Recover the amino acids of this structure.
């Protein structure tokens, strides 16, 4: 039996699951400015996948890269969710939008 596909699937599930709270915490503590960091991580993962011979590690690198690129969109969506009051706003951080609280 070959378990590499199952391992890649499970790792994908974990990577996406880990990225979700990272986006929430990033918006809470920093706002949306770290999108450029997400871009660098995302592109690095994708480009890195092109140079990794192992299917497993290349896949994980690409999955991580694409997850961080998707995280850019989610970062701005998270800001909208905070504006709507669906998630808490960090009272210690300056906000560039008005709270509905």
């Amino acid at each position: 039996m070959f378990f590499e596909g199952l391992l890649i699937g499970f790792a994908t599930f974990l990577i996406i699951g880990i990225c979700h709270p990272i986006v929430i915490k990033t918006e809470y503590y920093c706002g949306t400015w770290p999108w450029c960091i997400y871009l660098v991580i995302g592109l690095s993962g994708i480009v890195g996948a092109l140079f990794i011979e192992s299917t497993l590690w290349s896949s994980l690198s690409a999955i991580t890269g694409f997850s961080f690129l998707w995280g850019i969109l989610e970062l701005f969506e998270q800001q909208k969710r905070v504006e709507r009051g669906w998630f808490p706003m960090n009272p210690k951080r300056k906000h560039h939008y008005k709270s509905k609280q």
Remarks:
- The chain has a mean pLDDT of 92.
